[in-house]
Sequence to fold (160 residues):
Amino acid sequence: MRSLSPLEIRPARPTDTADLTAILYDTFESTWLPNITSSAAKAFREEDRPTAYVARRGHKFWVCQCGQDIAGFVDWQGDFVNALHVRGSYSRSGVGSRLMDKAEAEISKSGFTAARLETDTFNSVSQQFYAKRGYTEADRYPDAEWGSDLVTILLVKALQ
Fold:
């Protein structure tokens, strides 16, 4: 965990693209790579999925900036949180909580009474993080994205 400068939550800018892509590769290496097949990992890299995702949705991301660093980002649409990614060097520093606070507040402000998101059964760290925030399991189903026999958990949290 890094010593933090004040955290700023702000909309992503076009100049953040390289940092956002790097964060996605960082979390891929630490979280997904140990849990997927080698063919799924190869496809991820060959298709350059982080670059494609940032190109498609990066303009909607909210980032957490710490000094000159982009420490993480959150992406949501409607009541569904598509992604929360925190650079490994900022793990357990409050970045994820601040980003989720923003997403949940905006989801609620848009009139939704609950927030939804997915994680996978292997990701006990994210399950613990979301449980502490009040998310509960609503469903489980095969994770077809990775072709690796993973199981996705749908989590839901009532918003005030």
